[in-house]
């Protein structure tokens, strides 16, 4: 035991042992064979396009070049997206024009319903000679998104002279557009910024009267649009569900029967069902 | 004086190394000219050294064989880009080391040894005597145990430290060559080497002086 410290090797000696860890000669035969196969496969294999790409750049320049390319791509895509982002400005003005165009709409006979199954009951008056005027039970309706928009557009109209050059240009373009293609401007009426609340009353359109007063002297697209509105799409912001569906929903929502509830719950094996 | 370029700086190379580098470059020129078979000379010349480096980095014979082959294939595919700014063997080593490092990083959590047998004729009797005071089978067992402990300790080192100590202590490369292969400064190489030795010394303290 006294000679043990003398026999302990140094780290360098131990590391020399690693040099002796070598494979047997037969290992190299297999190694060469496999390498040959890989080499042939590499010769046959089509190289990827980016591997063939020789930009002639030094290695250190790859990262900056890649970053610059990514930045350029971002800027280009941002430019492509920008017109969409700028959309609200023209829409505001168009909305204004559309509200002006309301007056040129043909008189549509409306029949305002009240006290029916709609959630908000509205006491309405009938006006055959003008655009549908809603008179609620409250004389002064609460400010809605629509009224705010209308106020804004009036302010814009009133201050055309004080408008910025770009806004003036847009207004002039719209005026020109109104002269050349009033149908398009009219169609912009349907553009809404947000849902108006409180809910407007449902308007029952009388198709015959609408068509009679409107189809003459208008384009085919306008006639088709009016026909579509008149026959198929009543002016309800929240279209009512079909009667059968409404009834079914009411039955299910109002169902207080415990037996029915328990039937909705079911256990099958390791699963728990809940039927709606 | 013969010079080898490392990161734009010229470093002095030994005449033997320079002669070897020139000979390799001549073969590379042949391959670049279309003589694909000439690449076999380079394979035969460097396969054992390259395998040794990769094996000592991975401590796995099968992985080492695959990675060495991959390194040769990559070198073969990229041979046209070799301009002779560094010696062929440092270029080849760099490919092999990078391939191995990528593999080790990818399979960080999958480590198992598959060790080569010790070729005792490769180790001097003096070293064997230092490592083991036993004879016959007992000595083999003792040497095997030392080998396993050393490999375990090596695998505990970080990849960068393991690379440096493998290239310096086992493959016998200079600091400058290691710096060129690992693409760092010589100071970094020395620092990593110092740390790696300290770590191994602490890990194997019960076996070492």
In short:
The complex is a heterodimer of chains A (about 280) and B (about 210). Chain A is mainly α and about 280 residues long.
Structural summary, described in words:
The complex is a heterodimer of chains A (276) and B (209). With 276 residues, chain A is mainly alpha-helical. Chain A is 54% helix and 5% strand. Chain A has helices at 4-7, 11-19, 25-44, 49-52, 62-85, 88-101, 145-158, 165-180, 182-187, 207-214, 220-231, 243-253, 258-264; strands spanning 110-112, 203-205, 265-268, 271-274. In chain A, the strands form 2 sheets. Chain A has a two-stranded antiparallel ribbon. Chain A has a two-stranded antiparallel sheet with strand order 3-4. The longest helix of chain A is centred in the N-terminal third of the chain and has 24 residues, at 62-85. Chain A is extended, with a radius of gyration of 39 Å. Chain B is mainly alpha-helical. Chain B has 9 helices and 2 strands. In chain B, α7 crosses α9 (186-203). Chain B is globular. The N and C termini of chain B lie far apart (41 Å). The A-B interface holds A 3, 5, 7-24, 27-28, 31-32, 34-35, 38-39, 42, 47 and B 43, 47-48, 51-52, 55-56, 61, 65, 68-70, 72-73, 76-77, 115-120, 122-123, 127, 130-131, 133, 143, 146-147, 150, 165, 169-170, 197, 200-201, 204, 207-209.
């Amino acid at each position: 035991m006294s000679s043990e410290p003398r026999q302990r090797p140094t780290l360098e000696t131990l590391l020399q042992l690693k040099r002796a860890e070598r494979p047997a000669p037969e290992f190299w035969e297999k190694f060469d064979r496999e390498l040959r196969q890989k080499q042939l496969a590499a010769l046959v294999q089509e190289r990827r396009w980016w591997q063939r790409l020789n930009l002639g750049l030094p290695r250190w320049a790859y990262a900056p070049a890649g970053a610059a390319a990514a930045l350029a791509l971002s800027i280009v895509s941002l430019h492509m997206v920008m017109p969409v982002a700028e959309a609200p400005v023209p829409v505001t003005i168009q909305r204004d024009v559309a509200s002006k165009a309301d007056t040129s709409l043909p008189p549509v006979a409306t029949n305002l319903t009240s006290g029916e199954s709609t959630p908000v009951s509205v006491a309405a008056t009938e006006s055959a000679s003008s655009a549908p005027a809603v008179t609620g039970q409250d004389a002064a309706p609460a400010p809605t998104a629509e009224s705010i928009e209308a106020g804004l557009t009036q302010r814009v109209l009133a201050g055309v002279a004080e408008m910025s050059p770009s806004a003036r240009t847009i207004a002039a373009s719209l005026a020109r557009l109104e002269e050349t293609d009033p149908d398009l401007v009219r169609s912009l009426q349907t553009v809404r910024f947000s849902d108006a609340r409180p809910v407007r009353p449902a308007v029952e359109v009388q198709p015959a009267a609408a068509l009679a007063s409107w189809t003459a002297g208008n384009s085919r697209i306008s006639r088709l649009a009016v026909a579509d509105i008149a026959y198929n799409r009543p002016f309800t912001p929240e279209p009512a569900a079909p009667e059968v569906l409404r009834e079914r929903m009411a039955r299910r929502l109002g169902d207080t029967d415990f037996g029915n509830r328990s039937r909705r719950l079911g256990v099958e094996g390791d699963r728990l069902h809940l039927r709606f | 004086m013969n010079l080898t370029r490392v990161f734009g700086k010229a470093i002095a190379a030994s005449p033997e190394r320079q002669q070897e580098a020139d000979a390799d470059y001549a073969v590379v020129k042949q391959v670049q000219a279309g003589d694909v078979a000439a690449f076999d000379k380079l394979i035969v010349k460097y396969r054992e050294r390259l395998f040794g480096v990769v094996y000592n980095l991975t401590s796995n014979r099968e992985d080492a064989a695959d990675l060495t082959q991959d390194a040769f294939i990559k070198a073969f595919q990229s041979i046209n880009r070799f301009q002779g700014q560094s010696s062929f063997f440092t270029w080849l080593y760099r490919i092999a080391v990078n391939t191995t490092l990528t593999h080790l990083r990818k399979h960080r959590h999958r480590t198992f040894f598959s060790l080569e047998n010790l070729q005792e004729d490769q180790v001097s009797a003096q070293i064997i005597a230092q490592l083991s005071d036993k004879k016959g089978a007992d000595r083999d067992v003792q040497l095997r145990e030392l080998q396993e402990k050393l490999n375990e300790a090596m695998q505990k080192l970080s990849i960068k430290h393991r690379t440096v100590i493998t290239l310096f202590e086992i493959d016998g490369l200079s600091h400058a060559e290691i710096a060129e292969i690992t693409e760092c400064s010589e100071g970094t190489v020395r620092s990593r080497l110092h740390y790696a030795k300290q770590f191994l010394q602490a890990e194997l303290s019960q076996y070492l002086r």
